[in-house]
Amino acid sequence: MIAPSSAWATTAPHPQTKRGSTPERAPWHAYLLLVNPHRVQQSLQKVAALGELERVPNLWQIELGVISMWHRVLFRSDTVGTSRSDPVRPSWRARALEWRPLRFPFLLREKAVAPLDFSGLVSSPERIISHLVGAHHDGAQFAYDLELLRLTPGALERALEATRSVTRSDSARSNWLRDLVVYEGYHERLEAALVEALRDGIALPPDQANDPDVAFGAYLRWCAKQPATPAETYAAWRRGELHLWRSTGEMV
After folding, report:
1. Chain-wide mean pLDDT for the chain?
2. For position 84, what pLDDT does the model report?
3. Whose CB has fewer CB within 10 Å in the chain, the N or C terminal residue?
4. First to last CA, the chain
5. What domain range is 11 assigned to?
């Protein structure tokens, strides 16, 4: 397992990194893909303040990252909201909600998904906590959201409290949330990961620490490697050097 500082770190500086600089003016297309680009900028400033990433992506690179995430949902949907190892809970609700189209409206009602905020950089800590507690993440995939919560003091503690309200009670509410994530043992794994994150820092298996589908730091590094402007993106596409469509398990 490796700690978040090494998971986020990169060795080569990037000319676009401007810690403490004035936020760039958001272009019109940023509102289409990012919804609230000013909130994204604020989150990226928090990332830069940690000093763990030399290459902090700009708004356009985050837009390209969102496009890549849309591609994942459309063409690699089996990597979202499913489990390769955990059994489905035996309740009738969990068995019914295993069918993801049926699950989606309930996830919306619980604010467990934010369909327009693919990067997570717009969502409040409370919305991310609702996402963690109500939406299934396979394996170590919830590490992405733990890294996002790490940007806000006290957010990991609040996430642990919300998770324990499920694992340490047998109420209609806790049973509903267990059924909503469909698979057995999810909240217990989440609780253990949160305890470890608060005690030792967020850790990831070495074979997943550089996977943008799993690690927020890896996602940011992937974005920072993309062309920095629309003109550069078009030029890279003309040269055949634009590769936005990641594969499952791809590393950066």
Report:
1. 90
2. 84
3. N
4. 17
5. 4-238
Query: How many angstroms separate the CA atoms of 18 and 157, rounded?
Result: 31
DSSP string for residues in 89-107: PSSHHHHHHTSHHHHHHHH
> What is the pTM for the complete model shown?
0.88
Q: What sign for the dihedral angle of Cα 87, 182, 220, 6?
A: negative
Helices marked H in the chain:
4-8, 28-34, 37-50, 59-75, 92-97, 100-109, 125-134, 143-149, 155-167, 172-180, 186-200, 216-224, 230-238
Q: Is residue 46 part of a domain?
A: yes
Both tokens of residue 186?
């999810």
Give per-residue pLDDT as tens, 164-193.
Answer: 999 999 999 999 999 999 999 999 999 999
Domain assignment present for residue 35? The answer is yes
Examine residue 250 and state whether it is found in any structural domain, yes or no: no
Residue 205 lies in a domain: yes
Number of structural domains in the chain:
1
The closest alpha carbon to 69, from 225, 222, 197, belongs to: 222
